[in-house]
Amino acid sequence: MLRPMSKTNSVLGGGGFHHVAINARDFDRSVRFYCDTLGFRPKISWGEPGKRAIMLDSGDGNYLEIFEAVNRGPVVEGGAILHMCFRTSDTRALTERIRAAGMKITMEPKDITIQTTDHGPGQVPICISFFQGPDGEIVELFQNTYT
After folding, report:
1. Which label site among 23, 63, 129, 143 has the fewest CB atoms less than 10 Å from its CB?
2. Where do the H-state alpha helices sit in the chain?
3. Which pLDDT tens digit goes with each residue over 34-52?
4. What burial class does residue 85 get, using C-beta atoms within 10 Å of its C-beta: 0-12 exposed, 13-18 middle, 19+ buried?
5. pLDDT-derived band at 7, boundaries 50, 70, 90
6. Cα–Cα distance for residue pair 56/41, rounded to 1 Å
7. CA 120, 124, 127 angle in degrees (round to 5)?
8. What is the Cα–Cα distance from 27 to 52, expressed in whole angstroms?
9. Residue 59 half-sphere exposure toward CB, CA atoms < 13 A
C-alpha cells in the first residue's frame, strides 16, 4: 500500500522545488514553447528588452524561470540550465545550516523586491541566497509568499 507523500520538509520549512532557471537566446520562442506546447502559465515577469525574465508555473506551483540571454554562445548539452532552486520558509537559517555543512556560499541571504511587468501583482518581495553543492552545482534558496 502506498503512503500519502508528505507536503512538508522540516529542514526547508515546507520545501520542494521552487524553480529551475534556464538561459534562452530566443526568449519569446522559449516562453511560447513552454506555454503553448507544455501548458505552463506566466506567473511573474520583469526586466527590460534584452534582460527580461519570467517565471512560468508548470501547474502545481513549481516554476521554470527563463532569463533572456541574447549574447549567449553556442548551445552545448545541458548548457542552458543556470541553477536549481528550493523553496524555504527561512532562507537565512537554512543558509547557516548549509555553511555549517561546509558548502561555499556564493551569495549571502538578500532581500529583493521583484518589480513585475506583464505578469504579477507589481512588487514581489523575496529573500534568496546561493551556494555551491558538493559537486559544484549552483543551488538557490527562495523564500516568498506569492510564488
Report:
1. 23
2. 27-32, 91-100
3. 899 888 899 999 999 889 9
4. buried
5. low
6. 5
7. 145
8. 8
9. 5
Phi, psi (degrees; rounded to nearest 5) at 95: -60, -40
Grid cell digits, residue 62: 513549481
32 three-state secondary structure: helix
pLDDT at 3: 44
CB 6 within 8 A of CB 15: no
pLDDT, mean of residues 94-107: 92
- CA–CA dist 141, 123 (Å, integer): 19
Partners of 41 in the β-ladder: 57
Whether pLDDT at 2 is above 60 = no
Q: The C-alpha cell of 136 is what?
A: 559544484
Q: Amino acid identity of 145?
A: T
Pairing label, strands 41-46, 17-24: unpaired
SS3 assignment, position 71: coil
